[in-house]
Specification:
The protein is an alpha+beta fold. The chain is built from 2 helices and 8 strands.
Length: 138
């Protein structure tokens, strides 16, 4: 189990959720279509912490899976706010997602303040998560 499996669990949950819209992934080429809403996703892990001692203990991983909703500037914030609420319903506190047996627990989901940039109204949604991975010291 690894940090990559944690990321994949969150990405798999995102691409399979009812709130999904066209998405730009990290370090991938994407050119938005003017007037069409889209999202950007970011995996923002904190350094892992020791959760239990011993060579066969566990490490705890926390971080943020951030979804930046991008809606046409000048159309108001309603549609973006509705999409943020739909994301919050899927990634609600206590929800669990898994990939390769790696489970990820959602701690909280909420939106930050929106801003305008380059013709888009950008509304960030922060999904805070926690997961544990087995430590194998040989």
């Amino acid at each position: 189990m690894s940090a990559r499996d944690i990321e994949k669990a969150l990405l798999t949950a995102w691409t399979g959720c009812a709130a999904y819209i066209v998405t730009a992934h990290e370090n991938a080429n994407y050119k938005p279509t003017q007037g069409t809403p889209w999202a950007q996703v970011f995996f923002l892990p904190a350094p892992p912490k020791v959760a239990t001692l011993s060579g066969s203990g566990e490490d705890e991983h926390e971080g943020i899976f951030q979804v930046n909703l991008n809606y046409p500037q000048g159309d108001g914030a309603g549609a973006a706010a509705d999409k943020a609420d739909a994301i919050r319903e899927i990634f609600e506190a206590g929800a669990k997602f898994a990939y390769n047996s790696q489970e990820v627990l959602i701690l909280s989901t909420g939106r930050a303040g929106g801003r305008n940039a380059e013709g888009w109204f950008i509304l960030p949604v922060e999904i805070k998560f926690r997961a544990r991975t087995a430590r194998t010291v040989t």
